[in-house]
Amino acid sequence: MAESILLGHAPRPTDGAQLAKRIRTVVIAAEPAGIACTSIIDAELDGADIARLHLDLTGFILAGEVDRDRARLEPQGASVGWESAVLRDLRVHACPMHVSGADVTLDAQLTDVPFTWIETDLGELAVDLARPTADRPLHGHAMVSVPKARIGKAVLGLAESALLDHGVSVSKLELDVESTGPRDLRIAVDAKVRKCLLGASVRGTASASIDDRMGVTLSDIQVDSGNPLVSAMLGAMRGKIQAYEGRRIDLASELPAGVSLADVQVRVTDAVTIEARLV
Fold first, then answer.
1. Average of pLDDT values for 16-44?
2. Could you tell me if residue 139 is inside a domain?
3. Domain span at 199
4. Whole-angstrom Cα distance, residue 32 to residue 159?
5. Residue 116 domain-assigned?
6. What does DSSP say about strands 215-225 and 198-210: parallel, antiparallel, or unpaired?
7. What domain of life does the native source organism fall in (predicted)?
8. Residues 120 and 10 in one domain
């Protein structure tokens, strides 16, 4: 049940104030110990449905993988009861929140998000956001902005869990993004990675062009390492890496069913800002 979010004990709350209180407990568990919660949470229930959930996460500090209180974030029991519902209006705002030392500005709104109330054999209550489908697509928009100098730390903080699942640790990730045109970017990566006993620095650069049909074309791809062994391995893989040269990646077709992008815009100033609209 790793994808479910614990909301205390069953039964489910009967009014918005109770729901907001339970969500605040989740927010506190996701922050480092001893941090005062300053998030503003406003909720309204309509039967099983959540009519409105507005989260102002300004000042929220996302704890690292080790610091998160998973016992207060994830249910431990097995599911024994389910009730389908809809989150009609979800708004999340942060100006900013803090992810791995980076100030991340976020503004998002989603409508008609399906989810499920879950009760476990331990008397727990959890919610599980349902995957969107072609019949029940996601609608809304989102904007996220990260200072250019800190974007590597923010990306690493968000990807930390997935990397650890694959036995990979990253001690440094510097990511530089430069705008070279209205829809053109130059990306440079400098990372120190370790898998088992093998550690190395890895550097890479590439250009990316985004077209109006949500396609990304990569060019000028270069990858190298300061570790001779890793550099030799990368050399052996050069053919596979170069296969991406000039290749158009259709982002729209890679999205799951029920997620359709009408527009994506990337702006690079002293911050990297991405805006997307879902239809």
1. 92
2. no
3. 149-254
4. 18
5. yes
6. antiparallel
7. Bacteria
8. yes
Q: Is there a domain that residue 99 lies in?
A: yes
Tell me which residue has tokens 């050399």.
235
Same domain (yes/no): 113, 197: no
Tell me the pLDDT tens digit for each residue of 141-184: 999 999 988 888 777 776 777 777 777 788 888 889 998 887 88
Identify whether residues 92 and 183 lie together within a single domain.
no
Mapping DSSP onto H, E and C, the string for 169-232 reads: EEEEEEEEEEEEECCEEEEEEEEEEEECCEEEEEEEEEEEEECCCCEEEEEEEEEEECCHHHHH
What's the pTM value of the predicted model, to 2 decimals? 0.76
pLDDT(55) > 70? yes
Angstrom distance (rounded) from CA 26 to CA 239: 46
Report the domain count for the chain. Answer: 2
Same domain for 164 and 105, yes or no, is: no
pLDDT tens digits for 195-248?
Answer: 777 788 889 999 998 886 778 899 999 888 878 878 887 777 777 878 888 888
Q: Measured on CA atoms in the order 63, 64, 69, 75, is the torsion positive or negative?
A: positive
Residue 13 has pLDDT above 90, yes or no: yes
For residues 258-276, average pLDDT = 83
